[in-house]
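This section describes the prediction task in plain terms. A model, or a person checking by hand, is given the sequence of a single protein chain and must write out its three-dimensional structure as a string of tokens. No templates, partner chains or ligands are provided. The sample shown here is typical of the held-out split.
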Amino acid sequence: MKYAGGSSGSIILGAVARILMPLLIMASIFILLRGHNEPGGGFIGGLLGGVAFVLTAVAFGPLAARRALGISPYSLIGWGLGFAILGALIPLLLDQIFFSPAWTSFMFFGQEVKVGTPLVFDIGVYLLVLGIAVVFVLSLMEVDFDDHDPEGMDSDHPCMADDPPPETGKEGSP
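The expected answer:
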């Protein structure tokens, strides 16, 4: 059952969504960061991050999911494409083959951390998949079926798409 604002109105779903959203986001970032050496990566991490915002949209409505995201999902798609292309082009700047991995390392809290172009590419894929998943689901949730009824399926007198709409308000109308 839908209530005003597009939320489900379920108190239990709302409580579960508040708990699960940060956990899903953390899990998606973990899967993103471990993805080059072990199973995971940008695609699966982006899907899991998308699930977090879809859960928020189902529990509280599409507007709440957009607010939780904090940035336009279309911007995420653009940034994702940019990072993915950057990850492919950096090796060219280092006189290496296109899309070949380039690595660097630095010390972080006494530990050596290796960072490379595969991570840049995975971040791009993560942002791209997250943006597409959110755009897809929110665009389906935000359709106003009252304004979008080309075949008259919601009216009392349905007609086929190529039939003229029934006249209303005149004598002799159905």
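For orientation: The two ends are 31 Å apart (CA to CA).
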